[in-house]
Structures are given as structure tokens and as C-alpha cells.
Amino acid sequence: MTTPSLITLSDPSSYVTESYKLLRTNLNFKNINNKYQVMLMTSAGKEEGKSTTICNLAITFAQSDKRVLLIDADLRRPQVSAIFDINKRKKGLSNMLADAMPLDTLINKIDSLDKLEILPAGTKPVSPTELLNSEAFETLITQCREEYDVILIDTPPVLSFADASIIAKVTDGVLLVVASNETKRAMVVEAKKNLDKVGAAIIGVILTKVKFKKNANYYRYDYEKGKTQ
Known about the structure:
Elements: H1 7-10, H2 15-30, E1 38-43, H3 50-63, E2 68-72, H4 80-83, H5 93-99, E3 108-110, E4 113-119, H6 128-132, H7 135-147, E5 150-154, H8 163-168, E6 173-179, H9 185-197, E7 202-208, E8 221-222, E9 227-228
Parallel strand pairs: 1-5, 1-6, 2-4, 2-5, 6-7
Antiparallel strand pairs: 3-4, 8-9
Helix pairs in contact: 2-3
């Protein structure tokens, strides 16, 4: 089932979908020699659109024939399962880290995308910070590097909890989501400072909730014909 948030599946020719594809292209351009294989996505505050963004980005990577693992490491307020219509009671990351469950028993696959696999947040009611700061989590990321081309990790807002800063230590780069006309400049600056403290490599900033006029013109590149339209 496709939920409204997954516009890259529900409306593949939309302007928003093209924007996600452009984001993928820009990341591929920066990702020479697979420098950024493991990427974390966070935001300064809540409800800035990071989970919707990372889910659609994961889809576009999978559509480009990359083997992708999407990990929901927002154990406090997980959204990935709801976006992909996965049963929220399914076991996932927290169960794996707390009970040493094998990764392949917790993976969820998407019918229309054989290259995309999802590790949901899980159901174990334990301390997220302790789990994510564990040797088991580091081992998981090391294992996944051998099996996947791209690993995307959704995390809580960096100013609300330490989780994103902890996870950043074992990733290659961070994507910071900023909501247009909502996120205060001071919050963005503070979020960057928090990530800088742990030596996180900020790959770029993604602007969400941008308002477009319905009749706005834009250029789309036709790859087959080699011209703009």
C-alpha cells in the first residue's frame, strides 16, 4: 500500500518527485568512491519533514538500482513504519540491539522495490540512548556496510536528544533538514554546533515545506532527448 507521504511512488512525474531525484543526483555527485555510504538524517526541531524526506530519498536510490537499507533509529517517535504502512508492532532495531536478534529476521521488504529494505524502530521499551551508544549498534553498521550500497538512518531532532550526535560517530555524513519559514535560524546554528562537537561531516542542508505556485514554470531535463523542456 502506498501512503500519501510516498509521493515518489504515488506520483512519479510530479515536481516534488523530481526534487527528490535531484537530491539523489546531487548526493551521487558528492559521493565519489562511495565516500558517503552511511548517511544520517536529522533536523533541528520536530515536525520538519525529515522522516518523509528520508523515506522518499530511499525510494529514489532504490529506483536507481542501488541496494538500500533504511533504518528507523528514531526510537522515541518512529515514523518510518507508518509512512510505509508497516505494522507498528513488528520487531526491529530496538529488539535487535537489546535481544541480539539477527538482522535478516527483522528486515521488511517493499513489493514494488526489490532493492529497498527497511529496519523499523522495533518494540523494545528500553533507553534509546543506551542502545544507540552500544557496541551492538556499531557492529550492525559495520555489517550493513558489507551488504548494502546505501544506508540511510532516520534519527530524532538533534536539539531534542543526544541520539543523532551519538549515531553520527559511526556514519559517513549528516543531512540536516530545515523547514522553510518555520525553523529559526538560531536553531539551525545550534544544531550545526552540536554536530560539529562530535566531528560529524555535514553533507548538506535539505529545505522542506517549500511553497510552490501551481503555475510556476520549471525546467526538466529529458535524458533521452538531451534537451530541456
